[in-house]
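Format notes (please read before filing issues)

Several people have asked whether sequences and structure tokens are stored in separate files. They are not. Every record keeps both together, in the order shown below: the sequence lines, then the token lines. Line labels are part of the format and must not be stripped during preprocessing.
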Amino acid sequence: MAHNRDLLNQQVHRPSILISGVIRIVLMQPTIHKPSMGILNMKQGEQKFTLARHVPSDPLRDVIKHFWIIRWDLTDQPPYEQGIVPNPCVNMVIEHGHTAIYGVAQNRYSHRLEGKGKVLGIKFRPGGFYPFAGLPISQITGRSMRLEDVFQADPRLLEQAVLSEDEDEHMVAAAEAFFLAHLPARDNNVAYLNRIIDRIQGDRHITKVDHVCEQFEVNKRKLQRLFQQYVGVTPKWVIRLYRLHDAAETIDYGSYQDLTRLSIDLGYYDQSHFIKDFKGIIGATPEEYTKRVLHAT
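Then the structure lines:
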């Protein structure tokens, strides 16, 4: 498998589309019906574009979380910037002339939508891209790779096969055919790491790597090595990410009036550290975010 190492040294230049999260779920089958985790200013965004997420077929579910399709028509309208909160997943974006693979982004980022168009994306499960790539995923964290450096395939042919279709189901079927033709051998570490990450996401009491090691009876050094190799980020970063997601969600629902108490409950004992991390992930300080939420209501 050929890899262009020069590409791994370039910072991500993401195309002018959204690559994670949900604004409005279009009702088509099969579609995932979930909240819009990761999207900022959701009410405004849903006026600009639609996003549908589709569950992969059984052979791909170990490695692909879902397919997502964005459609927008901003003809005679100004471009729209969409803010995104990061997650621990690699994405592949199929867009005319810009198809690429994107490593995990570690801070909040935004994308510009303009004109009219559609794209299909593939959100891999945490660790799910490693069996395809065969290189430590930490090497592409915050960076991008060309399709042909992983799959030895012509991106123009894939773009034609997927984007020439009008219906979502046919677009997904074309993308699935590509991945089924390149499907690697099953890697049990992917499922293992997803169990860990699902636990981290769902359990607010996990605020330290030691908590994960205790629950899964795993050596800290081994856990860190697996995360760097398969996920591309440290377990500490994933814990921090989801606790900050929890903080933003808590503010959204008005559950906390005391931000200092909130930071302590989420494992932060240094208020300045909490503020810095929150702003890096959410794009605003907790106080600024609280004011925005109050203003929106």
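For reference, the curators noted about this record: Residues 1-36 have pLDDT under 50 and may be disordered. The first helix runs from residue 5 to 8.
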